Automatic annotation (TrEMBL):
Family matches, as Pfam families: Peptidase_S13 (PF02113)
Species in which this protein is naturally found: Nonomuraea coxensis DSM 45129
Protein's name according to its UniProt entry: D-alanyl-D-alanine carboxypeptidase DacC
EC number of the protein: 3.4.16.4
Superkingdom field: Bacteria
Length: 514
């Protein structure tokens, strides 16, 4: 995983600890109500934007230190949160699983070993690790060979029973099925990169001597590639997996190299091909075919790989708004609490956690916010954000939120190109959310007085381009808020839409465009 420098991480944790304890009391104002009145007037003005005339807008701002409500409009209305759902999933996961939680992936021998021969099946068992790379499966195969196994008389069995067999969310749209941000959820999966986009393969095209050359990362023959593209003067190419199949069709023209992240149809079957190929590479011959099923009792462990901790995983998960991490953690919570690796069991854990922390309006249909049937109120989001400040894991969780204006992908995340050069830059720690007609931003900001504020902005049902700049104006105004006097006029903002599409999280756009 790509890392930030130790100083950046340390700085983020120090800031988080300060946030958890709260600063000293705000500067004494001559008329504290005047500052709040000015804030109300300015936020009302920002929200009077004509793009919101037919839309729904819910905004809540509270003092994190006193609980005072500084601003609210439609605080209790249920709105679509998009990826703000991940605030609930991530917090519940840390509370339930712990920051030190790891996903083990193991290889078991189900049979008697005589010399270099395993008389029985070789079982690959997963628990949902979204960080597994092809290289990690190769390392497991090398361990099997190092354990002295050269021939397996039985089958290669893929044990993905830690989770249930439902691969896609109930409310996910069919036209997202091949998109990597809606990849199937399995207890055995693989990522092509260190963003850990589990369940997907990178398909690359490049012009080569008048023809179009196609390659995949990792190398795999699992996908059937149908290459209809031609070399041309410009790159205008479509790489798309056909619905319900393993077939990827490439059409259009290619001048410059181009890549697309494509979800596989069945992560377990895909991983099985990767692992079988690695076994062969390391001299382990499996005589039988490939099957799926649970490892039998008494199977002996031959190799093991453990993921990074959940505390470390929070960084790519939250900074880059990774949907697959959210859904895997949801099923992992269900497995731990109820013994069932299902969406229903996991969502109950998240919902129960939210309610236990005072959340009133909540309807969770998945862990990531990809479902349009997810529903929260801005007041409920602020309640959650306020409640978790007292948790022992809060500093790590707070540091994992995207930070406005920080260009490093693993620090700024989905906010790295927003609010640069304003008082909100390096100050706002918040979760973004985007779907067509939906945008949200919820998190924390320190006012000009040094007062910690908690906020949630939810904009739904607009027909314009993305109004993320409205969110930015509100966040900047909160960073300027002072109880002592009226704040300066809102700073000029770099357009939130510059360099990115507005209907999806910018980190869902591959190659990264924000």
């Amino acid at each position: 995983m790509r890392r930030t420098s130790a100083s950046l991480v340390a700085g983020a944790l120090v800031a988080a600890l300060a946030w958890a304890s709260g600063p000293s009391s705000p500067a004494v104002a001559l008329d504290p109500a005047a500052g709040v009145a000015d804030l109300t007037q300015d936020l009302n003005q920002i929200l009077s934007d004509s793009r919101l005339t037919i839309a729904r807008a819910g905004v809540v701002v509270k003092s994190a230190s006193t609980g005072e409500e500084l601003y609210a409009t439609d605080a209790g209305k249920q709105l679509i949160p998009a990826s703000n759902t991940k605030l609930f999933t991530s917090a519940a996961a840390v509370e339930t699983l712990g920051l030190d939680y790891r996903f083990p992936t193991t290889v078991l021998g189900a049979g008697r070993k005589a010399g270099s021969v395993l008389a029985g099946d070789l079982v690959l068992r997963g628990t949902g690790d979204p960080t597994m790379l092809a290289a990690d499966y190769d390392a497991l195969a090398a361990e099997v060979a190092a354990a002295g196994v050269k021939v397996v008389t039985g089958r290669l069995v893929a044990d993905d029973t830690w989770f249930d067999s439902q691969l896609l969310g109930n409310d996910w749209t069919w036209d997202d099925e091949t998109a990597y941000y809606a990849a199937p959820i399995s207890a055995l999966t693989a990522s092509p990169d260190r963003d850990y986009d589990a369940g997907s393969v990178i398909v690359s095209v490049a012009a080569d001597g008048g023809k179009v050359k196609v390659s995949t990362t990792p190398e795999t023959d699992y996908l059937k590639i149908v290459n209809k593209a031609t070399a041309g003067a410009e790159t205008d190419v479509l790489i798309e997996r056909l619905h319900g199949t393993r077939t990827v069709v490439i059409t259009g023209t290619v001048a410059d190299p181009y890549q697309e992240w494509v979800a596989v149809d069945d992560p377990t079957a895909y991983v099985s091909t990767l692992f079988r190929a690695s076994l062969a590479k390391h001299g382990v011959k499996v005589l039988g075919g490939t099957a799926t099923g649970a490892a039998p009792d008494g199977a002996k462990e031959l190799a093991r790989h453990e993921s990074m901790t959940l505390g470390e995983l929070l960084v790519p998960f939250m900074k880059l708004s990774n949907n697959i991490h959210a859904e895997i953690l949801t099923k992992a919570m269900g497995r731990k609490v109820a013994g069932q690796g299902t969406w229903s069991a996991g969502l109950k854990v998240s919902t129960d956690f939210a309610k236990a922390n005072g959340v009133q309006v909540i309807n969770m249909r998945d862990g990531s916010g990809l479902s349009r049937r997810d529903g929260f109120s801005p007041g409920s989001i602020v309640q959650l954000l306020t409640a978790v400040r007292g948790k022992p894991w809060f500093p790590t969780w707070y540091a994992a939120l995207p930070i406005a204006g920080n260009a490093d992908r693993f620090v700024g995340g989905t906010l790295r190109s927003r609010m640069r050069g304003t008082p909100a830059a390096g100050n706002v720690h918040a979760k973004t959310g985007s779907l067509t007609g939906v945008t949200s931003l919820s998190g924390y900001v320190t006012s000009a007085d040094g007062e910690p504020l908690v906020f949630s902005i939810m904009l739904n049902q607009y027909l314009s381009g993305s109004p993320k700049d409205i969110e930015d104006k509100i966040a900047v105004r909160l960073a300027q808020f002072t109880r002592a006097a009226a704040a300066d006029a809102p700073a000029q903002l770099r357009s939130a839409a510059e360099g990115q599409a507005g209907d999806l999280e910018c980190s869902w756009l591959k190659p990264v465009q924000c």
